[in-house]
Every structure is written in structure tokens, then in C-alpha cells.
Amino acid sequence: MKRPFIILIVVAVALTGFLYSRPKVVVKDEAKANRDKVAENKPASKPEDDGHGHEEEASQAPKLSAEQQKQLTALQQKLSSASDKNAIYEQIAELYVNANRFDSAAVYAEKIALANPTTENWMRAGDTYYQAFTLALRQENVQSFTEKTRACYQKVLEKNPRQLQAKTNLAMTYVQSDSPMQAIMMLREVITEEPNFEPAIMNLGVLSMQSGQYAKAADRFKQAIRINPNNLNALLGLGYSLIELGEKAQARTIFEDLKKKVKEPTLVEEVNKALESIK
């Protein structure tokens, strides 16, 4: 499958777990590429070091607005005299998340977890690094965020081996590794433990789609829809799988239904393209 929609599905589905507790973020291919552009100018302010050698990683896109940059500068100035740095880290992390700068947000989420190593804090750090990992294109960034993501989720699983979202996301970091089958095995372990765990089912659907096993992908997406009829990503994946299986009439029905439900411009555009392709 070479159509651009595979990127859209991979991004949307890979972030399913994080999106349970965050606003939905759909990213165009061009926007993904921008995240990995090399900075042409030095940062306006020196990133705060947490004492462990972890400094904020530079990112040029999307850029902070003037108001966000002003807020960031003020928060960084407070850090030097703050008795409770975690409270400031929390605000900085949230600012970066709101700006879709997950690479930078993850640095501060990790600082919070290092200072207060609860399962919840490590989970948040892992989720945010996972966002950065999913959106990265340059191999050095993928490798860096992969290692960070795994380290955070391992901390979670040490404390709570039944944290299935952590295990699901951890599995997906192995998809492009030297051990891709490890991803499949871990996801299967998750659904063995919890057969209706939607994120793991969705990710298995995506992996089947990427490997050209569209019948298996369709079955996974149908399963996800039975669990959650409002899962638009599952409907999208099912529609594309049916196209590849030659079931164009069924696919058309799905995309016509999706057209009534989706509001995000990128998804609307993709649904329209799909309908045009099966006329």
C-alpha cells in the first residue's frame, strides 16, 4: 500500500492509547517531516538541565506562538528560584503538549518522573516520548525516542506488570527494530490477557495492513468497531482494507458514513479521496 493514507492511519492508531486522555491530534505527512528539521537558529533560552544530563531537545516545528514563547521564558526564569520545580515542569510540559511539541514535552515529563517516580508519572513520560517516537522520521530521532519510550514503560511495568497500555505501546517500538515479531507477540499477549483491549486490537490491524494482510486487518478493525462503534480510526482502516480486498460497495458505505462524522480537515480530505477512488 503506497497511498498517503497509510501514514495517516499509522499515526492515528499508534497514538490510540495516548488519545484516551488527550485531545485527538491528526498529523499530515508534511507536518511530521517538519518535526525533524535541523534548527537553523539557536534557542532563545538555554534549556534547563535536570542534573542527569537530559537537556531539552531542539525542535523547530511546529514553532511556539509569540504568547507561548513568552510563557515559556517566564516559566524557565522561575525555575532557578522555585522550591517545587516539578510544579514548573508540569506547566512547561503542558505548554509544549498544547503546541504539539511532544519531543520537548517529554523531556519535562521525564524530569517530573525522575523527581517523583510514581507509576502515573512514568506512564505520562512514556506516553509523551511515544508521541515523539511516532512522529519522528529521522533515524537518529527514532532511535533516541525509542530508547526513552522503552525505558519509561519498563519503569511502569516493573511497578505494575498488568498495565496493558504500557505493554501495547512498548510492543509498537519493536515494529521497525531487528525483532519486529516481538511486537506481534507482545500484542497477542495483551489480547490474551484482555481480549477486548482496543488499542492492541487496533495496532494488530495496522500491522496486518502494513504487511498486506488485508483480510486479517479487516477482521481486527471489525472487532474494534464491535467494541467501540464510534472508533473512526477503525472505520477508516476497515474501509481501506475492504478497498484492497475488492469489496468496494462495502467500502463506499463506510466512507459515506465517515464523511458525516469526521470534522478534522485532513481526515475529511482523505475520506473524499477514498470515495473518489471507488466511484
TrEMBL record:
Biased composition (Basic and acidic residues): 32-57
KW Ligase (keyword) present: no
Highest taxon of source: Bacteria
One matching Pfam family: TPR_19
InterPro entries cross-referenced by the UniProt entry: TPR-like_helical_dom_sf (IPR011990), TPR_rpt (IPR019734)
Keywords assigned by UniProt, alphabetized: Repeat, TPR repeat
Renumbered ranges of TPR repeats: 198-231
Region (Disordered): 32-67
PANTHER family (UniProt xref): BARDET-BIEDL SYNDROME 4 PROTEIN (PTHR44186:SF1), PTHR44186
Name the record gives this protein: Tetratricopeptide TPR_2 repeat-containing protein
